[in-house]
Amino acid sequence: MAPLLHLRDVALTFGGQPLLEAAEISVSAGERVCLVGRNGSGKSTLLKIAAGLVEPDKAVRFVQPGCTVRYLPQEPDFTGYKTSLAYVEAGLGPGDDAYRAQYLIDELGLTGEEDPATMSGGEARRAALARVLAPEPDILLLDEPTNHLDLPVIEWLEQELKSLRSAMVLISHDRRFLTTLSRATIWLDRGLTRRMDKGFGEFEAWRDEVLAQEEVDRHKLDRKIAREEDWLRYGVSARRTRNQRRLGELHGLREQRRTARFAVGSVKLEASEAQTSGKLVIEAVNVAKAYGSNVVIKDLSLRVARGDRIGIVGPNGAGKTTLINLLTGQLAPDSGTVKLGVSLEMVTLDQRRESLDPAIPLGDALTGGGSDQVMVGDTPRHVIAYMKDFLFQPLQRRTPIGALSGGERGRLMIARALAKPSNMLVLDEPTNDLDLETLDLLQELLADYKGTVLLVSHDRDFIDRVVSATLISDGDGVWTEFAGGYTDMLAQRGRGVGAKVRAPVGKAQSAEDAPTIAAAAPMAKRKLSFNEKHALETLPGKIEVLQAEAAKLNAAVAGDLYTRDPKLFAKATTRLEQISREIAGFEERWMELETLREDIGA
Prior knowledge:
It is a single chain. The chain contains 18 helices and 20 strands. Helix 7 packs antiparallel against helix 8 (240-259) and helix 16 packs antiparallel against helix 18 (566-601). With 602 residues, it is of the alpha/beta class. The radius of gyration is 27 Å and the shape is globular. A 6-stranded mixed β-sheet has the order 5-6-7-3-8-9, with helices on both faces. It has 4 domains: 5-205, P-loop containing nucleotide triphosphate hydrolases (Rossmann fold, 3-Layer(aba) Sandwich); 279-345 and 421-518, Rossmann fold; 358-420, no CATH class; 523-601, Helix Hairpins (Orthogonal Bundle), CATH 1.10.287.
């Protein structure tokens, strides 16, 4: 099939350093491709080149005539638009359905009357999504579409993108989102791209194989250089021309070794642990908190023991940060009691990174200023060595924090937090802007951490990997605890965070993260969109196909497949887990649409 978009031989240099070298992207009709790579590897730049927004040093770019392309930037420009609806409608082309703009505005919890100058990060992201989705283009180029979104909107977005026929190129750090949507993977690494015609779920095993082979090749090259150097020193001179040739080959090998761009190192994470806390860390009894008529927490009783890892999930405005502040004693409840255990040494990582002064140099943020030593627990370490553990370059020691990227500021906050002795970590959205490798290492650190963890996150995969229990908002101030991670909660509860009918999401009524639920629009004026009608009709068939596939796989794994072919057995069980998630998602979406259809009919 001829590609709709083909980008090849892309080269771009920034500040004398090559960012892209012979990179390539090819997207055919209906393809769903994820673009992955380390922070700073050039993913966003490559996507802008694909969108025609950045001119590279060299590239061949082909777009099928008549093909429509829409690009979602990380920071959309709202200049010149008076309302969010005007911004969304401006993205429509001739012949596009104008109603779809209003439909998406409603679905994403906006009113359409928001002033772009005062919109929050989440509102801006939802408006930008509505603008690129409204035309239903041939190709969608999405750069971090889940940034600033809460779980209900992320899960809605997954279902909406599944229902589209558009081809997609996705950049995201949300593993679950990429696994659900992608069918091919492009890995951007050291300026080059590699393609695998499988989704993100297969990527990490493939990446590890590639890096392991590189290490073998590197070792072979080093051995060959050593042999040639040995010959140069001790070999008996024969024909002079042959000697000159081998000497030239040796110089070539050395140059190859010198210019090779080997994989970037890994972040080294290790928490400084304090003395052991008491067995009971937090005991909350009949706790309640409200802001005016908005009840954030109602009659909550909770016991947190030493070593527990509690994940807190819910939509934006549900009161997650308020709950954290209550449980850690930073905020007094309206009623009930919160008792903290003995010998607690708490370290907090705040989601807004407000404790970072943009004018302070990176090195001073770690040392406190006036020193070149960082106290990691009770042990002094030179600031440059500690910076290198978190992938900072020595030259960045004097770089103001305001000049760092979002991912670098995230690593800095983690570096500061982990240097302090603690037996309790309070992490409010710690995964923002972190690349996949850093997320892996943070997860491993938390798995080895002997203290207690309170975690607020919208990253479902990260929650599954880290927590031992999940506390979810059921609305109206009610919070319910489930054993296990997000997937375990989903199985026990029967629905996700976004399973309820959502009203438009407004701004919090107070700075204390109080929720505001706007009145729902009258259902009499609501109609099922074309996509909703299509999904309602086709989802049962999709579910039947998946159930049939699951039955075949179950029959296969029940036999002697593990003995005959362990790799095929592992692939089959992985696919069964994926099918289970897909069926649950399809069933949940069908129930939502069927309920909506009945409500409209009523």
